[in-house]
Design goal:
single chain, 528 residues, alpha+beta, Alpha-Beta Plaits, 3 domains, eight-stranded antiparallel β-sheet, 14 helices, binds guanosine-5',3'-tetraphosphate, P-loop_NTPase, protein biosynthesis, nucleotide-binding
């Protein structure tokens, strides 16, 4: 197959949702369609089980599973699909944000009864900021839920999206009769048989004939006609260009559990979702079709075996062909590296391969060379941008609890931060280290891993920080900035990249500081 064909048949995407909306179930059904797995229940959920949210051993166990489901690759109708796993648990939101830098589009799953939930709002906002094309799947139509119009409205209001339905439910819950597929112009009748792999679709080109009445009864048929007419009046016509630009979000309805409406979603998805997209670097924009390989690290996974400090770096291929045993430039370190056993990801397994293409994720064994955000090239000095850090929610001082092991502790902290487990801030005043995390759970994970993987012991100490704000100033010599640095010296720190961060101790003090120093900008993300 030609290089260009390989690129254009790739679809690399993430599924995002609030926990329990049905992401795992949907993923599994997509894999079934791809023939990548044989039966439902084969994909282990890497989500943290309910009731186990404070059990970090459970997280360690899940960490093993999540390696297997980090990237799920399979073929479907001559497309190569790569699903990148995005943890739904909010304590791992940072991981998900980073993964979203490696997708070319996303599918958003929403529970028909719960509607738009908190975690969906946050994740969609990140996608919106990056103009990532989004397709919405409203799930669990076999249950009672909100009315279709109410949901579409809610999605527009709460998620700030512009939607257009490409399928439409006929009843729901007890009365769920099926789905009219606006995109394909056919009807799919619901039998409620979860074992049936693919439902039969019945082509209905013209809703004004009585064909539809015979299928679902006159009352339902009339209601469907009315609602579709209304929908056509309210929502814009589907336009692929707007969708790809992130300006319009098509919506599908279905039931992942019953494998209903999933085939429609997938068929439309491979049809309209974009192949790998160009990516900006600090120097220039790089197109996937360029013949020289480039890629960037968006995720690092430590090996489960503490005896080997071996890690797997996940690299998204942006351009060119990745080849086994070919030397590539690690731009940050300025050194050439060769990879003798690069991994490609298939459903539930990885395998060593000789070449991979833009859109693919390659897993590289690493002994500590990689950090999240690193760029690999064939020699060109480019730096991919946009692996953002967001202000953590929790902050604690980290102290060395075993003075004999300070080297191990520092090494451990450094590597865990490179992996993106948490963020490190170093206070300007006294060089004390502060660990910031999205969830409180990470503190236990860090403590456990420092001890078991690095032989170091740490303790924590509370510190009152509300938010970490990255500081932006035009003129570092200005009197205002100098005064700010003097007055707030106690609250100033540097992140791992050396960027200046203001650790505000309350929302009020942040507001006061912003007012007092109008020429200084305070950002809650490192990307501005
Ligand atoms: P998540 O990955 O987004 O967290 O959600 P997951 O797929 O694990 O689904 C959460 C729960 O919702 C599961 O039930 C799952 O069976 C159910 N579910 C998913 N899709 C549908 C659907 O279309 N209809 C209905 N009625 N339920 C659906 P659970 O009881 O929490 O887990 P399990 O014991 O069934 O695995």
């Amino acid at each position: 197959m030609k290089f260009i064909e390989e690129i254009s048949r790739r679809r690399t995407f993430g599924i995002i949702s609030h926990p329990d909306a049905g992401k795992t179930t949907l993923t599994e059904k997509l894999l079934l369609f791809g023939g990548a797995i044989q039966e439902a229940g084969a994909v282990k959920s890497n989500k943290i089980k309910k009731g186990a949210t404070s059990d970090f051993m459970e997280i360690e166990r899940q960490r093993g599973i999540s390696v297997a489901t980090s990237v799920l690759g399979f073929d479907y109708k001559n497309n190569k699909i790569n699903i990148l796993d995005t943890p739904g648990h909010k304590d791992f939101a940072e991981d998900t944000y980073r993964t979203l830098t490696a997708v070319d589009s996303v599918i958003v799953v929403i529970d028909v009864a719960k509607g738009v939930e908190e975690q969906t709002e946050k994740l969609v906002e990140v996608c919106r900021m990056r103009n990532i094309p989004m397709l919405v799947f409203i799930n669990k139509l076999d249950r009672e839920g909100k009315d279709a119009f109410e949901l579409l409205d809610e999605i527009e209001q709460k998620l700030n999206l512009k939607v257009t339905p490409l399928s439409y439910p006929i009843g729901m819950g007890y009365d769920f009769k099926g789905i009219y597929n606006i995109y394909e112009q056919n009807v799919n009748l619901f039998t409620g048989d979860p074992k049936k792999d693919i439902e039969d679709t019945i082509e209905v080109k013209d809703l004004n004939t009585d064909q539809i009445d015979q299928l679902i009864g006159s009352d339902s048929a009339n209601q469907l006609r009315e609602e579709l007419e209304l929908a056509q009046g309210v929502y814009p016509e589907f336009n692929q260009d707007d969708y790809v630009k992130g300006k319009l979000q098509p919506v599908f309805f279905g039931s992942a559990l019953h494998n209903f409406g999933v085939r429609e979603l997938l068929d439309c998805f491979v049809d309209i979702a974009p192949p790998p997209r160009p990516k900006s670097s600090e120097e220039r924009e790089i197109k996937p079709t360029e013949d020289k390989f480039t890629g960037f690290v968006f995720k690092i996974h430590a090996n489960m075996d503490p005896k080997h400090r071996d890690r797997l770096a996940f690299v998204k291929i942006v351009s060119g062909k990745f080849e086994r045993n070919k030397p590539y430039l690690h731009v940050r370190l300025g050194k050439n590296l060769k990879f003798s056993s690069p991994n490609a990801f298939f459903a539930e397994k990885k395998a060593i391969v000789d070449e991979m293409f833009p859109g693919d994720i390659v897993g590289l064994h690493d002994t500590g060379n990689f950090k999240i955000g690193d760029t690999l090239t064939e020699g060109e000095q480019i730096h991919y941008k946009g692996i953002p850090s967001f202000s953590p929610e929790h902050f604690r001082y980290i102290n060395n609890a075993d003075p004999m092991k300070s080297k191990q502790l520092n090494k451990g902290i450094e590597q865990l931060m490179d992996e993106g487990v948490a963020q490190l801030f170093t206070l300007e005043m006294n060089n004390r280290k502060i660990i910031g995390t999205v969830g409180a759970l990470q503190y236990e994970v860090i403590q456990y891993r420092l001890e078991h993987e690095y032989g170091a012991k740490c303790s924590y100490e509370n510190i009152n920080v509300h938010k970490a704000c990255w500081v932006e100033v035009d003129d570092e010599k200005s009197e205002e900035f100098q005064e700010f640095k003097r007055v707030k010296s106690k609250y100033l720190a540097h992140d791992k990249q050396g960027q200046l961060v203001f650790l505000a101790d309350s929302a009020f003090s942040l507001q006061m500081t912003e007012q007092k120093y109008p020429s200084i900008k305070f950002h809650i993300t490192s990307e501005f």
